[in-house]
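Team,

Forwarding the record for the chain on the shared tracking sheet. I've put the sequence and predicted structure together so nobody has to dig through attachments.
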Amino acid sequence: MSNKSIAPIATIKPHTLEKHKDIRTDNYYWLNDRENPEVIDYLNKENAYYNEMTTDTKDFQKSLFEEMKSRIKEDDQSVPYLYNGYFYITRFEKGQDYPIYSRKKGNLNANEEIMFNCNEMAKGHSYFQLTGLSVSPDNKYATFAIDLIGRRIYTIQIKNLETGEILSDKIENADGGSTWANDNKTIFYTHQDAKTLRSDKIYKHKLGSDASKDVLVFHEKDDTFNTSVYKEKSKKYLVIGSGSTLTSEYQILNADTPDENFKIFQPRVRGLEYSISHFGDSFYVMTNKDKATNFKLMKTPENATSKENWKDIIPHRKDVLLEDIEIFKDFLVVEERENGLTKLRIMPWSGKDEYYLPFESETYSAFTSTNVDFDTDVLRYGYQSLTTPSSIIDFNMKTKTKEVKKEQEVLGGKFEKNNYTEKRVWATAKDGTKIPISLIYKVGVKLDGKNPLLQYAYGSYGYSMDCTFSSSRLSLLDRGFIFAIAHIRGGEDLGRPWYENGKLLKKKNTFTDFVDCSKFLIAEKYTSANHLYAEGGSAGGLLMGAVVNMAPELYNGVIAQVPFVDVITTMLDDSIPLTTGEYDEWGNPNEKESYDYMKSYSPYDNVLAQKYPNMLVTTGLHDSQVQYWEPAKWVAKLRILKTNNNLLFLHTNMDAGHGGASGRFEALKEVAKEFNFLLDLEGIKK
């Protein structure tokens, strides 16, 4: 990469912040103003600096993009599923960036009805996202939601699928989701607070009416909760859910009587989490009731839903996390997680001969897929591993036979799964805890400490980092990289306690686990500090910010995508989207103990005058999850304090938000930038 350009230096404008008699001076607080031309100018200068410094790699970036794109089947489509008399299909056409949503009545040989061609709808827009597609019970209408900015603020509209007409109904400031009552004219949807973007209200809309006349059905006034609305698989009940990190509550209403009042299923109790599934005359309840840390399954009559009526079906197990269930007429399918691996448990309602689906690898991901019908013996599930492309499989639970409906094609004729090694190893954290690491690399790679290795992790919100296949990743693997996923605490990979021990006042376990995994990979000669790279996004970007402050000497390069790095200032600002709902994850800095603990690890507050790795930091101007100014301020501070000449780039997508570019191939260009950054540091030019 070029070294000719001079990095932009942000103007220092000291701003004093005080809490609990602790005074912090934020020199870059002024960047917190998206409408300020000086802010936009600074971001543009950072982008220009990145572009100038990487000019000599642009051709390689382009070839990486073309290489990754060439592996993807452009004229692809999903496995059709049957719902309410129609087969639904999502497909892509060659040369097009966006999906086409279609359906066929009765059988797959019927004429295709195109419901939405997003390529046509996206014309003239730098960003386009369609979501929340919901078809009325009579199959005549569909609600859909569009975001043209990337802040996940959606406008809901309604289309007559028979005539193609877009109705005049237009619902602004929605979260995108909506659901139909059984009368084909009543729609329930979730409204977002215009400032915080918290999903706070459920409204009822009548087909053909003005949205200003919509009826407020429920207002979630607790600002640590979000709300949503959906219909049960049985189609009998509409459900309003309210949830925070630690507590949940549901309300139910017969979908045939949408103008009646919702009834609370079980009132919220601090620390009580539950979810509900209706079948027959009962509800099945997944819950942590009675100190069931890893959750258990209970059952209650549909006319007696409070917790004193719940009866155990699957008891709590100390070493097995209950993640989800799928109900069929003759079978209950249970998603479990044990020793860091997902298992699918098939349980006949008869109580006879339950069994698990067999999975041989230790680096795989399995999950129930689209199962919209009770009255079938066929379970549709997804499977993939680090070396196995994503597959959709139909499994007959009675005959125990399976049919692979689709396996992701990797074009080009060069990919062969047996050319790669996948395995799981265990690092030891400083407190003695064993941390699993999933690895993939090309067969023949010598473990001599000289290999470039990209270590990835997330480690927050109880989100388990399952092993998934990536055709793009082959561009690194085929050039000698090892790829590692560190299943650190803060996720739920090894059960609920794995999460509890990586949040709030134990959050630092997440960071030290990652560092200890890095030390293990170096000690076992998978790599060395000169060839080790780290990557994480959002809360995983916080992880990156923490580890480069704690152990910068371990990494040659770091990629931090949309990183959450200004922890205290953000968590003290309850006007920012997500903040109040995050107190149970990070703590509430209005309380001194939480404030002090956050300050001890907040990346922005702990930037030091020390050597830092080469770093690429990315963000989106319209990001609603992590505001752009967090990475912008962080980079500005790093530029002043870091004591070496390693690369430091900030790249802001001026047209997108948290998820990056909207087109499937546009998003690959961002991946190409990241891979180019890593490969260039390794001196790999082609």
